[in-house]
Amino acid sequence: MSTTLAEVLAAARRRLSEAGVADAAGDVRVLVAGVLGLSPTAAVTDGARPLDDAQVKAIDRALARRAAHEPVHRILGRRAFSRLDLILSPETLEPRPDTEILVDALVPHARRIVAETGCCRILDLGTGTGAICLALLDLVPGAVGVGTDLSAGALETAMRNADMNGVADRFEAVESDWFAAVTGVFDIIVSNPPYIVRSVIGTLDDEVRLYDPILALDGGRDGLDAYRAIAAGAGGHLRENGLVAYEIGYDQKEEVTAIMRENGFSRVESVQDLGGNDRVLVFTKAVAV
Fold first, then answer.
1. Which of 15, 7, 17 is nearest to 63 (CA)?
2. Which helix or strand (DSSP H or E) is residue 217 part of?
3. What is the CATH number of domain 3-76?
């Protein structure tokens, strides 16, 4: 007798709830849909669908990993970001919805620059999956981008994502310690750098601490090392009236602004996330008005 999708979903919800997973029902929908190649809606509405042994075993393996608190999208190996479908790898940070706020803040600026000059050159420092730069290239057809990372594995993942999302002809991956291997000047320099205070990393949730790469988390003793490095080098790679934009930790707005001010930048924009926390800062060498 075959097992139905509805039966598997019900058992999966109980299993994850018992394992202490906070949103067991939501995680089951996404996880089972991903394993079966269904939309999350179909996973709910097509409960009578019969599942064969191979499908049930594949779901069981995925549930075992989730019960051990491996993140859903790590298990599936990919996740949606902006309009993109991104492959994840052990060397890359899993892009979060908060980072889409950084992309959304920059799209109007990038489109304006394309309209005025015919092109917008973007430098994404610490690109990881390529999420920020690739989303901007997808949303701003006249833009071209360079993504840098210290991890060769991350850069390989970024290039695969660029190819998979149809923007590889406008994206270049460069292995670099911040600006060390970067040449040329850019209209926009953007980064979601490591900004976690080093002493706090051991207290993070298992889903972050055990699965996101330490290189993408560790911001040094006070969480601000990356901002200092970028602020010091950005001026030499920025076109006149160009922009530098960051994702920041919820309590870092004034500290990052002070670092940038010391390096000759003015803050022109500050954006909060849906929780009301400061999340994105945009700076320029020009005087703010």
1. 15
2. none
3. 1.10.8.10
| Tens digit of each residue's pLDDT, the chain (289 residues) | 579 999 999 999 999 999 999 999 999 999 999 999 998 788 888 888 999 999 999 999 999 999 999 999 999 999 999 999 999 999 999 999 999 999 999 999 999 999 999 999 999 999 999 999 999 999 999 999 999 999 999 999 999 999 999 999 999 999 999 999 999 999 999 999 999 999 999 999 888 998 999 989 999 999 999 999 999 999 999 999 999 999 999 999 999 999 999 999 999 999 999 999 999 999 998 554 4
Q: Which CATH superfamily is domain 91-284 in?
A: Vaccinia Virus protein VP39 (3.40.50.150)
In one-letter notation, the amino acid at residue 4 is: T
Paired tokens of 71: 């993140």
Q: Would you call 33 helix, strand, or coil by DSSP? A: helix
Instruction: Report residue 210: phi and psi, to 5°.
Output: -90, -20
